[in-house]
Amino acid sequence: MEIDGIISAIVIGIVIGVLGRLVVPGRQRIGILWTIAVGIVAALIGSAIAAAFGVADTAGVDWVEWLIQIGLAALGVAALDRARAGR
Hints:
The chain is mostly helical. The chain has one domain. The chain is 76% helix and 0% strand. Helix 1 (3-23) packs across helix 2.
């Protein structure tokens, strides 16, 4: 992954985090900064997974990569919410 890919993953990660939060039902007890952090991590990991499966660079919009990233963000938001609820 090149530097422009990392920068775009961070920018997209912000959006991915918010979308991941919207996918999780109910109220989440985590702040927006945690949501953004989860989104950035999900975007980077999702890009790596998509590259490993060969779906990262397709003609047009990379829908499969986005779905992987949003799914990971939703899992991350839900996991962090559960971890914070236990306190």
